[in-house]
Amino acid sequence: MRYAVVGTLTLLVSGFSFAGSPPPEEVGETDQCLSQSDQARLLDKAFDYVNTKLCQPALWFDSFFVDERTDQDARAGTQFRWYNDFAYVEGKGYEFETKLKARLHLPGITQRLKLVFESDEESDVFDLLPGSQVEAENTLGLRYDWFSKGRSSFNIKVSARPSIEGRFQYTYPLTNSTVARLTQKIYQRKKVTGELTEFDIDHSFSEDFLLRWSSFARYEDDIKGWDLGTGLTLYQHISAKQALNYQVTTTGTNRPFRYIDDTQVSVTYRQNFFRDWLYFELKPQYNWYKEEYEPRFEEAKFTLRLEVLFYNI
């Protein structure tokens, strides 16, 4: 949930830096968390205050957990991420998955244009959809950050699949501790036209606890149906190298009839170790699945993730 508006600044640090921002108490108001509007109106001043206050814990959590929903904002910088998941699934045994994602500025070209190597499918919308979904293949593409100012940003991504996607994001402070964020995507992938609407509300209890409520709705014309999901995530800061998140989510669909296809509860412990760019995660989770006309079943899963992560390389 990060401070909806500045949460995306997670990757905005200039120059070279490793992943792993300083803990909330170490983030000063002279860095990227400082928000200053060009407008002198009272409303804009209040917005700047909320941005600065919420950014401090939000920026750290988004950076530490590499939130997929915020690091694609137009203000996001470069990133290299390689993770390996070793999982034990009840009734299925051991599974292994490795994936590489990268986003790089092209040398000698405007900073707005980036070379991306990542999935152009929404196979893990908000991390709310179950991990047993079919994994999409990664592909090369280009992303152009059209604009990023104040509360809004817009970028366009074209990939070799082929596909094209437009992404708009708008953030608005509700109170001194609460921020709402709306993200709208419209895309064309091969012969499929679709839209994805994402809505988040972040509430900061303190520098150590941040609560995010996330919801999404997705429609694609080939199946003429909707996928819906909602979930709560509580982030807990332990130290500069350790954090936890507690999550409960549920997703549903209206095709071929209305039903809840997955409900999940999980706890994720993440720690930076040995080097600034090395992380590991421990994640126990429990899912209740249902597939169309099949009976509902339950599944326990435990995942160990080893990750190499650089920002702004």
Describe the structure.
A hairpin with a 2-residue loop joins strand 5 and strand 6. The chain is mostly beta strands and 313 residues long. The protein has a 14-stranded antiparallel barrel. The chain is built from one helix and 15 strands, in the order E-H-E-E-E-E-E-E-E-E-E-E-E-E-E-E. It has one helix at residues 42-65; strands at residues 17-18, 79-89, 93-105, 113-119, 138-149, 152-159, 163-173, 178-189, 192-204, 209-220, 225-239, 242-253, 259-272, 278-289, 297-311.
Strand content: over 45%
Q: Give the end-to-end Cα distance, rounded to a whole number of Å.
A: 25 Å
Unreliable segments (pLDDT under 50, ≥5 consecutive)?
A: 1-40, 122-126, 129-135
Strand line-up in the sheet with most strands: 2-3-4-5-6-7-8-9-10-11-12-13-14-15
Biggest sheet, open or closed, and with what strands and sense?
14 strands, antiparallel, barrel
Mean pLDDT: 78
What is the H/E string?
EHEEEEEEEEEEEEEE
Q: Please estimate the helix content.
A: under 10%
Overall morphology: globular
How many strand units?
15
> What is the number of helices?
1
Question: Using only CA atoms, what is the Rg?
Answer: 19 Å
Global structural class: mainly beta
Please write out the topology:
Layout: E1 17-18, H1 42-65, E2 79-89, E3 93-105, E4 113-119, E5 138-149, E6 152-159, E7 163-173, E8 178-189, E9 192-204, E10 209-220, E11 225-239, E12 242-253, E13 259-272, E14 278-289, E15 297-311
Antiparallel strand pairs: 1-15, 2-3, 2-15, 3-4, 4-5, 5-6, 6-7, 7-8, 8-9, 9-10, 10-11, 11-12, 12-13, 13-14, 14-15
